[in-house]
Amino acid sequence: MSGVLYLCATPIGNLEDITYRVIRTLKEVDLIAAEDTRHSIKLLNHFDIKTPMTSYHEFNKVDKAKYLVEKLLGGSNIALITDAGTPGISDPGEELVRQAYEAGITVTSLPGACAAITALTISGLPTRRFAFEAFLPTDKKDRIRILEELKKETRTIILYEAPHRLCKTLYELRDSLGDRKLTIVKELTKKHEMAWQTTIESAIARFEEEDPKGEYVLVIEGCSIEDIEEQEQSRWDAITIAEHMQIYIDRGMDKKEAMKKVAKDRGISKREVYQEFIQKDS
Question: Last residue of a domain, which of 64, 82, 112?
Answer without folding.
Answer: 112
